Amino acid sequence: MMDMTFSFTPKDIGLFLIFVGLIVLIVYLVILTKALIESVQRTNRILEDAEKITAVAQKRVDDVDKIIDDVSGSVEGIASAFRGKESLIQSLSSVSKAITSIIGMLKHKKEEHTK
């Protein structure tokens, strides 16, 4: 019969503990990397949504800016007509342009909601 004896030196135990620590660290890093990838993907989706929202908001700002310009011109035309600088027909034309712009924006907004 063979007698098998194992003896471990402190150096062997230290190396074993280092290898176990490295394996635990690698597993932890794999889990951390997976969570990081999911976070980056979620962040990219949020940024894409924010980009779409910003584009819609910019379009609305441009629409409102045009309407404000039209309304401002209409009010200015009416004021000029009262001062006698512009004819009544030109003033009514300016008012009708402003009303048309507002109606156009409302129709466009209604069409987008139905999509």
Radius of gyration: 37 Å
Work out the number of β strands: 0
Mean pLDDT: 82
Uncertain ranges: none
- Compressed to H and E, one letter per element, the order equals HH
* Bulk shape: rod-shaped
Could you tell me how far the N terminus lies from the C terminus, measured between alpha carbons in angstroms?
86 Å
Strand percentage, roughly?
Answer: under 5%
Instruction: Give me the secondary-structure category.
Output: mainly alpha
Primary descriptors:
single chain, mainly alpha, 2 helices
Give a description of the structure.
This protein is mainly α and 115 residues long. Helices cover 88% and strands 0% of the residues. The chain contains two helices and no strands. α1 (10-83) runs antiparallel to α2. The longest helix has 74 residues, at 10-83. It is rod-shaped. The model has no long low-confidence stretch (mean pLDDT 82).
